[in-house]
Amino acid sequence: MMLAIGSDHGGYELKEHIKAYLTAKGTEVKDFGVYNEDSVDYPDCAVPVCEAVLSGECERGILVCGTGIGISIAANKINGIRAALCGDVYSATMAKEHNNANVICLGGRVVGRELAYMIVDAWLNAEHLGGRHAKRVEKIHMLENKR
Fold this sequence. Notes:
This protein is of the alpha/beta class. About 50% of the residues lie in helices and about 15% in strands. The longest helix is centred in the N-terminal third of the chain and has 14 residues, at about 40-55. It is globular and about 40 Å long. The model has no long low-confidence stretch (mean pLDDT about 95).
């Protein structure tokens, strides 16, 4: 599995820790930046990760900004992306099982490193349950196409 990862300056440090954690576990990670803590705009950071997921270059994506809020809003403006802001393990599991989230977002200034690892693992180990949840995800997709 190839994962896309990216952040703005507020998420840079946590992104680097997550990338190292995943790489040490043998997971392939493609880093779409940023590569330092110089100020950047989080919508610009969301786009390359989401495009890599949509193109199939990467199976899923992880985005990090200061709180995770801004980058999740930006990611969800991209048709086909279901980005979930996750601050706990249960939400990460549900994001995949119920919502089939193809991107998760974390807050680098609000989520500690060890919790971030548990969140990422929960999301990666979960599988979409389908059934009634698939119908709901399809309704989300229909909302994207109405505009």
